[in-house]
Amino acid sequence: MMSEVQFSADEIARAYERLIERFVTWAQEQDDIRAAVVIGSRARTDHPADEWADLDVLVGITDPQRFLATPDWVAHVAPYWLTFTEPTGTGEGMERRVLFEGGLDVDFALVPADVVGQMVEAGPHPDVADIVRRGVRIVLDKDDLLVQLVAGAPEPPLPQPPTQAEFLNVVSDFWYHAPWTAKHLRRGELWWAKGCCDAYMKGLLRQMLEWHARATHGRDHDTWMRGRFLEEWADPRAVAALSAAFAHYDEADVWRALFVTMDLFHWVAAETAERLGYPYPAEAKAHATELVRLLYETDSQRPE
Question: Where does the chain hold its CATH 3.30.460.10 domain(s)?
Fold first, then answer.
């Protein structure tokens, strides 16, 4: 079965097109499926799909729950290996993800059809306008709603810089969790400490990198979403430092990565504050850093 998997970009692109055709053919006969649009890299001209890209399909449907509750309908599209449901990237809806035979992975984001109609009347949400801006391909539109939605979607507004309160909240959140991580290391909770250092704190770092990039290059500097193409839009100094900012599942290495992450966040946040004209809470940072250092130096279990 695995011999069916292809890694040629052209072959994979054709396989996805056949999958789209099969989905549309089946969906045409389903009264509750009203619309479908391809989004993401397989509809974009900027950073278009390569051989590793998946397929993202927004489906306008009268009863999303029925399609979320059971995977039976997936087999009508094509043979598949596995499927599951999870929240969409924005967390505002649900999607069914499918790994089809041959290794083709598809995200079906299931949107109530009446929501599409509401957006046509009231105007699309900024996130939807951004999706349209990046490129969409309508493959099914029984009620002509998607055509109206795409035609009426305005250019999304440029991102606003953070307010001083928003900036301070992220900085304080980060420096709160630095000693929090150190304390869990001292307790021996390696999984918990590593998760905070390499997931939660990195999320705050990613947010600061976005603000830093736009404060440096202008509000129209494209930082994509949730770290996509970070290696292209973030400060090259930060990108270079990231290679040392993640840890192995090892206590000494989590300590090391924590200090690297703290140093990296500090200069990125300090530069961002200067460019935005905001005060930087240097005293709070100093207290948090001193506490982490003290916890580290008094760790009798730490290898020398």
Answer: 2-152
Q: What is the pLDDT of residues 109-164, one digit of tens each?
A: 998 988 888 887 777 777 777 788 888 899 999 999 888 888 877 777 889 999 99
**Which CATH code fits 164-297?**
1.20.120.330
3-state SS track over 254-292: HHHHHHHHHHHHHHHHHHHHHHHCCCCCHHHHHHHHHHH
Residue 296's identity, in one-letter code, is Y
* Comma-separated ranges of CATH 1.20.120.330 domains in the chain: 164-297
Length of the chain: 304
123: alpha, beta or left? (left if phi > 0; alpha if psi -120 to 50)? left
Residue 289: exposure state from Cβ atoms within 10 A (0-12, 13-18, ≥19): middle
Assigned CATH class of 2-152: alpha beta
Cross-strand pairs, 105: 99
174-185 per-position pLDDT tens digit = 999 999 999 999
Per the prediction, the chain carries an average pLDDT of 91
